[in-house]
Amino acid sequence: MIGEPILVMLVEDNVDHAELVIRTLEEHRIANRVRHFLDGQSALDYLFQRGEFLNRTDNIRPHVILLDLRLPRVDGIDVLKAIKEDDNLKTIPVVVLTTSEAEKDVAKAYYNHANSYLVKPVGFDEFKRLMDDLGFYWLSWNTHPDPRD
Amino acid sequence: MKYLLEPPSFKDAKETTTARLIFFISAGMVVIGIVFDIVAFFTSTVVFQRALIIGAISAPVCLFILWLVHKSKISAAGSLLLGMIWLIITVGAITAGGVSAPIIIGYLFLISLGGLITQKRIGTFFAILSIVSAVAIAIAEMQGVLPPTLQYSPLERAGIYTFFFLLTIILQMVVAENTNHLLLNAKKSESLYKTLLESIPTISYIVSNNGDSATQYVSPQVKRLLGYSQYEFTQDPYLWKKILHPDDKERVLAESIFTFETSQPFQMEYRLLTKEKRIVWVRDEAILVHDEESKPLYWLGVWTDITSRKQAEEEQADLIGVMTKRTIQLQTAAEVSRAITSILDLNVLLPNVVDLIRNHFDYYYVGIFLVDKEKEWAVLSAATGEMGRTMLEKGYRLELSESSMIGWCLSHRTARIALDVGVDAVQFRNPLLPLTRSEMALPLITHGELIGAMTIQSVMPAAFSRVDITALQSLADQVANAIENARLFSERASLINELEVRNAELERFTYTVSHDLRSPLVTIRGFLGYLRQDAVSNDLTRFDKDIGRIASAVDRMQSLLNDLLELSRVGRISSPPEHIPLELIVQETVNLLNVQIDAHRVRLNIHPNLPTVLGDHTRLIEIMQNLISNAVKFMGDQPSPEIEIGAEGSDKDGKAIIFVRDNGIGIDPQYHERIFGLFNRLDPTVEGTGVGLTLVKRIIEVHGGRIWVESQPGAGATFFFTLPVGLEKTES
User: Fold this and answer.
1) Where is average pLDDT lowest: B297-301, B380-384, B690-694?
2) Is the CB of residue B517 less than 8 Å from the CB of residue B557?
3) Is the dihedral of CA B355, B356, B358, B359 positive or negative?
4) Minimum CA–CA partner of A20 in chain B
5) Is some CB atom of chain A closer than 8 A to the CB atom of B518?
6) Measuring CA to CA, how many Å separate A24 from each of A17, A115, B310?
7) Which domains are present in chain B?
8) B523 has a chain A CB within 8 A of its CB
9) Model-level pTM?
10) In the predicted model, is pLDDT for residue B426 greater than 50?
11) So what's the pLDDT on residue A84?
12) Measured between beta carbons, which residues in chain A are less than 8 angstroms from residue B528?
């Protein structure tokens, strides 16, 4: 559905990294909205509409979730698990975006049904390009399931 | 012919005597007969005639008799001779007119001869025959049956008488000579035997056969062996009983009574006491001697000195005893070796070793002491029996001084034997081991290091010799080596374990570090790129902000690196631990964090009972700094923030328990473990590197303590940790 506002959910504890991602996505006007969560707990509360997000009317279901693995309180993998085990939420593509390229992290992420695994590159240009590609792929190319189904 | 004329001699003395008698009489008869004939020829025809006839008959018969004698037909010869003589006398008397014939005197000769040359019966027969013949002739003469009496002149009569006298003389001479001969032989024999008996090394004796066994004779050698002379033995015929060894007396006397009753040969070995009260061993053999009619006469016995043989036997027995002991020792050593090489668990090895040694040698008690780490005490680590169990349970131990066998042994590093513990210093007595008479303590030395000692105790006095020390010391050396091996083995196992743990830690560390160090780099590079953009687009606000982000990222990296470095240094404490009152540490820390504490208006409540701890000054400051700083940071919205620092007794290892309590936001129990993990931060918005608590935990663990937290969300947090207690200084 081209034209429809796309919501990207970014779960990232590092504010600087979050800033980078947001800026890049906005620049390329790929996503109109990015919602940033600093930790796994609040991310899940939002998705499951509980806790501090109980009875809120603007809990819009994201089209894609960018998930860092190293999060305080609830770990990234646990967030992934929670999402993928829920019938309602499991259809949302979850892209792991993290600094770690350790094999066991990759394996664990995929084992828990991550849709993709991206390693944050250190170089700025590469980072920008990654974000571009990310945006294009997941938000333009990829066909989203209808959340209403 | 010549052979006939030699006097006979046979082995049997009696036979010889008789034979010689017959021989000489026969020979004598012939000779004297011839002489008589010659004389008669010249003096009297009548006698001559008669003599000639007699001679003619008797000569060949005599020769025949001689031949018989040489052929050993003694009794035949004797009977024939007697018969011939009787015939000659009887016929002579009859033909000479009766009993008045001088030849009648021959009967006298016949009777004498008969008794000597034949058995009693034949001799008696001829004697009676002679008397009867004489009477018969007398009767015949009275009847006038006989021819008229021959008239002999007095000279003729004398001549005939002389003939018989001569024969009688010969008889006498021969008999005398024979008797002398016999006596001489007997004497020679006797002296030969006597010499023999008195020169051979064994002692001969004669004892009466009347039940009391009185000594009748004992050979002179007895003096050499027993010191008592022959005379003393015969003076007191029961002396031999008196000098019997008291331990053997009963059985010897019993046996001798038995022997007397059964007349069986006597054979025993027993001891006698010499005049100087020395002990000798003798072998006594005696037999009962009978006379010709098998009537028992006396006991003839022999004492042989077997002292040296008995001594040799004893020595041999001792030698065998020693060798057996040696064999057992070697056997035990081999078994212990086997056990040692197959058991690496010290808890199994030590009890096995003491039991093996105790059982193989049948000792009363065996125990092994091991020196403790501080080298002040020898702790009982294995012991046999019930008393061993009791002592082990009590944690029995001995000081390394000289007040005990083990203590002495350990101080001097050499073996020690006490041969009679009851006598050899009362201080060595252990009331739990009352039966000990001798004790041996052996040091356990391996690779030149003294690791303990082994005690072996016996209920026999003087149970240990130098030979035992040598054998058992080599055993002890083996045991020492085995203990060392077992220790090394378990040390190795724990080292390997530690290594594995460290390795895992390192891996986690590396992983974590690489991840968390990369993060700032991403930020820096990312925003460097944007800086360019910002400059181009002339967005100064953003430009400023972005530079700020880069700067703080760099700062973060720096502090991260610093903390990591600190963490790695914590493992190595270079300075020796000091005794520091915790109060001082807290004061110093409070001074360092003064600004922070005031800024958050935190109230401090420091208890007065803070203990003195043993540790590194700098590190202790770090502990308090991190804990207090955290407490301040996580106060949240608390209107009256307060931090309480105090001590709460000690844990089971004797370490002091200290706490830092705050009334801040608290920590959810599910994170109580994670907060100590590296870079685990519960609230990323709060300043911090995530290394703080990890550092604190590491420092405490290096000091030998542990740390834990009690907290609930919204109800503050209490961090508890333990540290080794130091010595209170009386004056600081």
Assistant:
1) B690-694
2) yes
3) positive
4) B526
5) yes
6) 11, 21, 118
7) 3-183 (no CATH), 200-305 (3.30.450.20), 318-570 (3.30.450.40), 573-723 (3.30.565.10)
8) yes
9) 0.45
10) no
11) 94
12) 124
- Report how far residue B726's alpha carbon sits from residue B613's, in angstroms, rounded to the nearest whole number: 4
Measured from the Cβ of residue B584, the count of other Cβ atoms closer than 10 Å reads: 15
Which residues of chain B are within 8 Å of residue A75 when distances are taken between CB atoms? none
Extract the runs of DSSP E, i.e. beta strands, from B209-278. 215-218, 266-273
Contact criterion met (CB below 8 Å) for B670 and A41: no
Residue B22: Cβ-neighbour burial (10 angstroms; 0-12, 13-18, 19+): buried
pLDDT tens digits along B136-184: 888 888 888 777 777 777 877 887 888 888 888 888 887 888 788 888 8
Q: Which of B466, B468, B441 is nearest to B453 (CA)?
A: B441
Structure tokens at B36: 């008589």
Number of alpha helices (DSSP H) and beta strands (DSSP E) in chain B: 20, 18
Are A127 and B526 within 8 A, CB to CB?
yes
- The full DSSP string for B451-484 is EEEEEEEESSTT---HHHHHHHHHHHHHHHHHHH
Of residues A119, A132, A16, the one with CA closest to residue B523: A16
Amino acid at position B602, single letter: V
Yes or no, beta carbons of A17 and B519 under 8 Å apart: yes
- B332: closest CA of chain A, how far (Å): 58
Residue keyed to tokens 């006469």: B297
CB-CB neighbours of B106 under 10 Å: 23
What is the fold, at CATH topology level, of the domain defined by A7-141?
Rossmann fold (3.40.50)
Token representation of residue B210? 């009347």
How far, CA to CA in Å, does A90 sit from each of A47, A65, A79, A149, B235? Answer: 11, 11, 11, 12, 135
Map B315-358 to HEC letters: HHHHHHHHHHHHHHHHHHHHHHHHHHHHCCCHHHHHHHHHHHHH
Cβ–Cβ of A14/B523 closer than 8 Å? Answer: yes
| DSSP secondary structure string for all residues of A92-133 | S-EEEEES---HHHHHHHHHTT-SEEEEPPSSHHHHHHHHHH
| C-alpha distance from A148 to closest chain B C-alpha (Å) | 35
DSSP B681: -
Q: Where are the domains of chain A?
A: 7-141
